[in-house]
Amino acid sequence: MSTMKAQVFRGVNQLSYEDVPVPEIGPDEVLVQVRVVGLCQSDIKKLCYPLYEPPRIFGHETAGTIAAVGHEVQGWQLSDRVVVLHHIPCMHCSYCFNENFSMCEVYKNVTTTAGFTPSGGGFAEYVKVPGHIVRHGGLIRIPDTVSFEQASFVEPTNCCLKAVKKAAIEPGQTVLITGAGPIGLMFIMLVARFGTRAIVTDLLPNRIEKALAVGATAALDARDPELASKVKELTGGLGVDTSLLAVPSEKAFFQALDCTRKGGKILFFAEFPDEVEIPLNPNVIYRREIDLMGSYSSSYKLQPLAADLVFSRQIDVDALISDTYPLKQLTQAVEKALQPGPDTYKILLYP
Predict the structure, then answer these.
(1) What value does the mean pLDDT take over residues 126-132?
(2) Which member of 7, 126, 148, 234 lies 3.0 to 4.6 Å from 63 by CB, making a disulfide possible if both were Cys?
(3) Assigned architecture for domain 168-294
């Protein structure tokens, strides 16, 4: 039996770079050699908080090449370059019929694995892709003109795109995006692509500059006491049509409430710590007709569009990459993400 290197989650803040068996595939499964895997905020949470029983191998923003193909698999062969999607809905439960794909139990139950309890498996040299994911569009062919690095953005692009679609953001509107980290910057690119103006807030001066560089109309310091009046000024006295919360901050929520026009929307995209409760006078929602909504994970339906936006370079994902580490240094990569420097955006890892 051959072995491979993987970063195994052994407990809170305990990663072990060790040898594990290469997963064995069944007749309808595919083995992918991981070339690049993105570090996601959700990975960081899983590594730093007691959310899941160890041992596990996380990582899900995966791009690589097919290294083995089960004999029943059709349409894929060795050395095909692919994006691996770590969950695909069942397509026949009530949630799927309502297009709430991310609420489907099959979707939520991650099945791509590099060993132990299936948990994504991208933080390893090889990852096994189960049959239902192979069959139902969970492998996406990477065009020759697209790098593995660029392709690793397909899944996060879908997550952001889903939120933009859910909030029904239209050309000519103005949105407030709180936070100009990798996700906030991705939102700027997407809404700009759809003809929408983005006003962005952040605490770091470099991120404020970066937001403008990737297409924001205005970028403001989140601590600015005049923030709400500046946003009103930029929107003809009205306020923004929609606010996208890309940071889990109560302060950001209340700023969004101050900056969103009557009849506007506020969308929770970042996941808050479970103990956070936000005191809210319901009359604010009632009198100002504000819609509060949430958007979690990706949408199966938007998969072709997300891939096309990345592959045809309609959004410049290269501008989001700031740091690259060998997989061996995942611990350092997580530390960097938790204590971002002035120019830290998206971090990619190489097994």
Answers:
(1) 98
(2) 148
(3) 3-Layer(aba) Sandwich (3.40)
